[in-house]
Design a protein that fits this description.
Strand order of the largest sheet: 1-2-8-5-3
CATH class: Mainly Alpha
Order of helices and strands: HHEEHEHHEHHHHHHHEEEEHHEEEE
Number of domains: 1
Shape: globular
Length: about 425
Amino acid sequence: MSEQSAPTQQVMPSAAGVDELTPIPAAKDVALEDILPVNPRLFSENRWEEYFERLRREDPVHFNETVSAGRFWSLTRYEEIKQVDTNWSNFSSAHGITLGFPVGTELPEGALNISTFIAMDPPTHDVQRKTVTGVVAPRNLANLEPLIRSRTQQVLDSLPDNTPFDWVDTVSIELTTMMLATLFDFPFEDRRKLTRWSDITFAIPQPGGIIESIQQRRDELLECLDYFMRLKAERLQNPGDDLVSMLAHGAETKDMPPLEYLGNLLLLIVGGNDTTRNTMSGSVYALNQFPAQYDKLIANPNLIPNMVAEVIRWQTPLAYMRRTANEDCTLGGKDIKAGDQLLMWYASGNRDTDVFTDPEQLDIERKNARQHLSFGFGIHRCMGNRLAELQLRILWEEILTRFERIEVLEEPSRTLSSFVKGYTHMPVRVIRK
């Protein structure tokens, strides 16, 4: 569960310039000032690496300005990303954590202006976050481990042998959604609603897409709010150890306005879904891309914990986070103005050769794999990082006891998003021992 993946509806994903008809040129053929890193097609077509490699080399603090999103800077090197991420007083989260409208701009009709504690600064951030951190405390994770393992075993045992199926839906979504339902004590038969609400939170409205309009997102998220308001009413009478009960009874959260309640729910839903789900898929894809590493893992399952950290670095399931400058400053030799947005491109920082040797390669024995940026730094560091690692470790422990190999049969389909760096479909075949 990643606090890093908190939603805010002060978002303009369409500002990224989706154009399905024009082929994406090679990065070397684009004028430096014309590179727009937030184009979601760079990620859905897996073309992002060459663009960010050029930016790290030629313009590591890169400026763009668009009519819809205003001024924003892309930080592409590890050093500047960490510098901003650890300095909440100068670089605020209070104006949103994804690329959005300039400060003071009115939201479009149909958008929800919801808030959440990741889009806050101390002290409010700290007390609201503290309310729910108990669910991922070490003792609770120890209690959850047998359940996670049992469910993982059941899902893997049900997979068809030597027959193609979609790993994303059958394994990654199912395992993460079951975990979310447990954390919320959510009606198990309705658990796929959690997946839907997670998917629509950052989806780009487009014909035939996950959502077709901002209004559709609004309507469905208000249905989410209504559902959880009913659960809150139940937990006020019969509290448990789940996240809804924690929010309903927490001194700092029990009286929050409905849209703030919704915002924190979506933070926890998206955080518990996207990070783990896309790394589960990414781990299978990565080990197929680097079969020698897969062989090494099969030969030595003790490498699983370090492999998990390395896959989280290599995949980087959330590509960036936004901060907003509180005052004029200089960063990487560039003059940043108060109110400018700064995008910390974790996906790019995790490919920085000043920190990681041959970063585009998967190396499950990488000594500094745990220094990755994927969980963030500072006060907004992913609160559920240990749960995500636990789920991934158990998954691969159980995979290696059952299967000789998981084969990716064709290139996966990827999420149309510059924020959620994930997979929508990946056909695989498992070969049992």
